[in-house]
Design a protein that fits this description.
The protein is of the alpha+beta class. The protein folds into 2 domains: 297 residues, 3-Layer(aba) Sandwich (Beta-lactamase), CATH 3.40.710.10; 129 residues, 2-Layer Sandwich (Transcription Regulator spoIIAA), CATH 3.30.750. 43% of the residues lie in helices and 15% in strands. The strands form 3 sheets. It has a 5-stranded antiparallel beta sheet. Strand 10, helix 14 and strand 11 form a beta-alpha-beta unit. The chain starts with 5 loop residues before the first helix and ends in an 8-residue tail after the last helix. It holds the Pfam family Glutaminase. It is an enzyme of class 3 (hydrolase).
Length: 453
């Protein structure tokens, strides 16, 4: 069969070429991880439409380890809010290893939720009446991100619990400093179980895609967390997710990411896709060697860096001009409307409206009103697919501002993108009805001597 799928072909090509990369060391400080085959190498990508692409060992189970941290952070934020979580866990890059003993002077706060100390505190913040309930909530949350029920690798959990003295030491220090409350044993045991949750690269790609999709799982359609929480998690991943290599990662790859000592690595390209790699050998900073290589190449090849300049797509404003409805009119009314054609202006808009597009729209409106000074403006959003909250806020005062200049603005808003959230707009379900309404106002201004039909 001839393949025409560039995404699948790219993953296969990267897998086949980079699988011979044999640098790095498999983690052995957790004895059970040292038994994993270093040759395992799986890639998976999930698009915003929920399409899954894989290459290599994408369905081989591994434990999630530190890749669990962003998702538990999301759960803690959902439970307590940013202010309360930030009171206990910082959001600054540590510049140190994932298991470093580094606490903020005076408060005992760990640097961020992506290092072990911060993750232990974050896990303890998940609302629950018991450690068992807390873990069940964590497992349910990660399962919702993955779009299927997940379970625990009990052998890895036992191995972590038997050798986790450094994490216990971190927890005792934070307990003494006041940033960790409650039982140290309960907090650390729950954290160990969280890290031993079993996933595949395909699962992880879905989880990353859910963050990239504003908290909505693109496979199941389930809203796992609100969009502002997904945004904040991605921000912390971008600055802290790759430990003391976070700066170099952001410079070279430019995507929010998180790695784990099992060899798992996720990255999210907001509003595009989630990608995951599983490859056990790690570099000196604890990041999977092949995973880093895959993401560096993919980012450069497809221009995925967050700071990459994206040229404008289709024009936001497609036309500005006079409008006439199809409503039957009397001869006198038709003549008056023809003579006053410049008093009703239709501004047609398309696509998604965010800051840049909305600024263009407002500029076009300003030019149209300055040039013709209409009495009525019809803002036709019939081909607009999305209005960001910030864009809606920019447009919200438009009817009142134009009214101060003697201009009435109405909107064609089929999906209620503006009218559902603001009382300032006069909305219509179609362009013809909106223009006819403006014509009726114009004719009414002329008095009863002008008939409608």
């Amino acid at each position: 069969m001839i393949s025409i799928d560039a995404v699948a072909d790219t993953l296969t090509e990267l897998h086949d070429r980079l699988r011979t990369l044999d640098e790095g060391t498999v983690a052995d400080y957790i004895p059970q991880l040292a038994t994993v085959d270093r040759r395992l190498f799986g890639l998976a990508l999930v698009s915003m439409d929920g399409h899954l692409y894989t290459a290599g060992d994408a369905d081989v189970p591994c434990t999630i380890q530190s890749v669990s941290k962003p998702f538990v952070y999301a759960l803690a934020l959902a439970d307590l809010g940013l202010a309360e979580v930030s009171r206990r866990v910082g959001a600054e890059p540590s510049g140190e290893a994932f298991n470093a003993i580094s606490l903020e002077p005076g408060t005992g706060r760990p640097a961020n939720p992506m290092v072990n100390a911060g993750a232990i505190v974050t896990t303890s913040l998940v609302a629950a009446d018991s450690p068992e309930q807390r873990f069940e909530r964590i497992l349910a949350c990660l399962s919702a991100f993955a779009g299927r029920p997940l379970d625990v690798d009990e052998q890895v959990f036992a191995s972590e619990a038997a050798t986790g003295d450094r994490n216990r030491a971190l927890a005792h220090l934070m307990r003494g400093a006041g940033s960790l409350t409650g039982s140290v044993d309960d907090a650390v045991t729950t954290y160990f179980r969280q890290c031993a949750i079993r996933v595949t690269a395909a699962d992880l790609a879905v989880m990353a895609a859910t963050l990239a999709n504003g908290g909505v799982n693109p496979v199941t359609g389930t809203a796992v967390v609100p969009e502002p929480i997904a945004m904040r998690v991605l921000a912390v991943m971008a600055t802290c997710g790759m430990y003391d290599a976070a700066g170099d990662w952001l410079l070279r790859v430019g995507l929010p990411a998180k790695s784990g000592v099992s060899g798992a690595l996720i990255a999210a390209s907001p509003a595009r896709f989630g990608i995951a790699v599983f490859s056990p050998p790690l570099d000196a900073t604890g990041n999977p060697v092949r995973g880093v290589a895959v993401l560096r190449e993919a980012s450069e090849r497809f221009g995925l860096h967050l700071m990459h300049h994206r040229p404008a797509a289709a024009p936001t404003v497609t036309s500005v001009g006079p409008g006439r409805s199809t409503r039957p009119r009397s001869r006198a009314a038709a003549a008056l409307l023809a003579a006053a054609a410049d008093r009703i202006t239709v501004v047609a808009v398309q696509g998604a409206l965010e800051f840049t597009e909305t600024e263009r729209l407002l500029h076009a409106l300003d030019q149209a009103i300055s040039a013709a000074v209409p009495s009525w403006v019809v803002l036709d959003l019939g081909r607009v697919t999305f209005i960001a909250p910030g864009a809606a806020s920019m447009l919200d005062g438009l009817p009142m501002r134009l009214r101060d200049h003697g201009v009435t603005v109405v909107v064609v808003d089929v999906g209620g993108l503006l009218t559902a959230s603001s009382r300032h707009w006069t909305g219509f379900a179609g362009l013809d009805a909106a223009v006819a309404w403006c014509e009726d106002q114009l004719l009414a201004d002329q008095g009863p001597r002008v008939g409608s039909a």
